[in-house]
Amino acid sequence: MVLGFTITGQDNDSYLKEDLYGKNISECIDYIANREKYITEDFRISKTKYDYSYTYDGALIISQRFKDFCEKLEFTDIEFHKLQAQPNFYLFKVNSVIEFDSERRKTRFLEYNEKCGEYNEVVGAVPVCLKDNQKIKKGFYRTDIEFGRGYAKSPLIIVDKDIYKKIQKEKFKGLYGEKILDKYNWEK
């Protein structure tokens, strides 16, 4: 059974905070949690053809068109942070959290950092396994786990089936999705 969809996007050939490259997780933990605080008046994305895209360091950027779509459907628990240098683009932040089942997925947590209590790298995000193996309720969600390495760690963004159908109908550039199933072929 399809529970919902994870949505992701292309890279936009940009960095929000490039000087954090190679830093240990304890040095960039605030950046991961609060990327909106790091938007400077000079920050610009290189590829503006996408409605939904990511910087190399994990910042999710959306177009005015995607923002309008979200506002029209009156979603709650999402935030839009305008890029000062490109007012038709926004850093997109999802606040509703959904629990990821890292044990079922066999996600690997690497390089634990005692200073901040986080792992420097988390791998094994897809296919997505959810702890509450039920259909996702209407809305946008982010996983409780950030995946990737260092400053590029970010959560998965998840939507219910109805919203995903509406997203597909709009044909947003750069955005694609994958089904989240209650059971996968590799599970016996």
Explain this structure to me?
This protein starts with a strand and ends in a 7-residue tail after the last strand. β1, α1 (25-33) and β2 form a beta-alpha-beta unit. The chain has 188 residues and is of the alpha+beta class. Strands 1, 2, 3, 4, 5, 6, 7, 8, 9, 10 and 11 form an eleven-stranded mixed sheet that branches. 17% of the residues lie in helices and 37% in strands. The protein contains four helices and eleven strands. It has one domain.
Topology readout:
Elements: E1 2-11, H1 25-33, E2 52-54, E3 60-63, H2 64-72, E4 78-83, E5 86-94, E6 97-98, H3 102-105, E7 108-113, E8 118-123, E9 140-149, E10 154-159, H4 161-170, E11 175-181
Parallel strand pairs: 1-2, 6-9
Antiparallel strand pairs: 1-10, 1-11, 2-3, 3-5, 4-5, 7-8, 8-9, 9-10
Residue-averaged pLDDT: 95
Q: What's the gyration radius in Å?
A: 16 Å
Instruction: Please tell me what the overall shape is.
Output: globular
> Level of helix content?
10-25%
Distance between the termini: 15 Å
The tally of beta strands, per DSSP, is 11
Amount of beta strand: 35-45%
Low-confidence stretches: none
List keywords for this structure.
188 residues; alpha+beta; 4 helices
